[in-house]
Amino acid sequence: MNTEQTETRLPLEGIRVIDAATVIAAPYSACILGEFGAEVIKVENPKGGDPMRYFGTPTKRKDTLAWLSEARNKKSVTLDLHLPEGVELFKKLIENSDVLCENFRPGTLEKWGLGWEVLHKINPRLIMLRVTGYGQTGPYKDRPGFARVAHAVGGIAFLSGMPRGTPVTPGSTTIGDYLTGLYGCIGILMALRHRERTGCGQYIDAALYESVFRCTDELAPAYGMYGTVRERHGPTHNDFACPHGHFPTKDNGKWVAISCVTDKLFERLAAAMGRPELAAPHVFGDQKVRMEHRHDVNEIVRDWCGSLHREELLARCFAAGAPAGPLNSIADVFGDRQFHSRRNLVAIDEPDIGETVIVPSVMPRLSVTPGRIKHLGPKLGQNTDEVLSGLLGLEPQEIEELRKKRVI
What we know:
formyl-coa transferase, domain 3, 37% helix, L-carnitine dehydratase/bile acid-inducible protein F, elongated, alpha/beta, 6-stranded parallel sheet, 3-stranded antiparallel sheet, 2 domains, 17 helices, CoA-Trfase_III_dom_1_sf, Rossmann fold, 11 strands
């Protein structure tokens, strides 16, 4: 367990969240809430649970490292929502909760008798996060949605890759899930604030493709005004600044990122390169000139980067105040002083697998009430008896009968 944790009262203590979603997006919203004090009850189908348990690298406990990291701080309760008894128990959980996170296709919960109108009537203060690929409305609402598809529909995948080459995955295939999880969490927090004022709950309609599209800076206004369609630029982004991209160094397989978005920053880079004359106004000192001669400028910078080992190159940039950084692999991250100084990696002892698991730390970083990791992802149904007896008041024999009927 993390010995750095304190007993400071966290901002979301007293809030109960039912996480009935699967995989990443909506569960990530619940995870953030749990890190800042909310009680998160993960409702899973007893026949295998959340598929996230099986994505990634398996552990000795049979579920995966991804599950241990992304389901942290949650309690696992098994409940079959296809059965009438499961539906009734779920309704009782909703009566006693503040937030529901779900990501079924539109109409699924309604088909089970658990739609927004039903749940809102049961608990008028309920806040419900609904995550889907395309939202609850529109001609695409019934299509299945995944982050990789959202990257494509939302416009980011089209920009990723080499010029005229095959579009590639923009980083991780799950970026759209995490983005939507963040927007979902923001929506929940705003809805909680509204409820403080009015006593009334509401639902949040979050679509994967919309979260991706929201992160496309000026794509929409540039096309709307000038008909501009941004294309793939590979490792150098040529629309706004130059040099502005990724460059290989003398080390095999090592790269750096350089970002000169102003003339002053290019002047610093020229100084780091030992070629201050490049920043003269009649050479490349003006951004417009650099943009007109971007291929020449990028080639000069590429040749310089290729002549130096990465550490030496970065040292020169840092000394001159030029904006540069390494393209870190996860191995680089584990050796990076900045990550260690800010404790971005947290080691958690996991008794069930007999090993220490290192996971990303809690974000954002609050000065008085920082979030905590109490434990990693739970075993399937680990807290079923605790929740059904403690929260819903079921007797042991009632729980055993539900287990025999495979409701739990």
